[in-house]
Amino acid sequence: MKEAIAILTGGGPAPGMNAVIGSVAKTFLAKGYRVIGLHHGYSGLFNPNPRYEDMDAFKSDYIFNRGGSYLTMSRFKPTEADFENNFNLSFFTENNIKLLVTVGGDDTASTANRIAKFLEKKQYPIANIHVPKTIDNDLPLPAGTPTFGYQSATDGGAVIGRAIYNDARTSANWFVVVAMGRSAGHLAFGIGSACHYPMIIIPEMFNKSEITIEKITNLVVSSIVKRKILGMDYGAAMISEGVFHALSDEEIAKSGVHFTYDEHGHPELGKVSKAQIFNELLEKRVKQLGLGVRSRPVEIGYEVRCQTPIAFDLTYCSELGMGVYKLFSEGKTGCMVYINQEGFVSPLYLKDLQDPTTGKIPPRLVNIESDKVQLVISNIMNYITEEDYEVAKQYVANPEELDFFKILNW
Question: What CA–CA distance (Å, rounded) separates 298 from 186?
Answer without folding.
Answer: 18
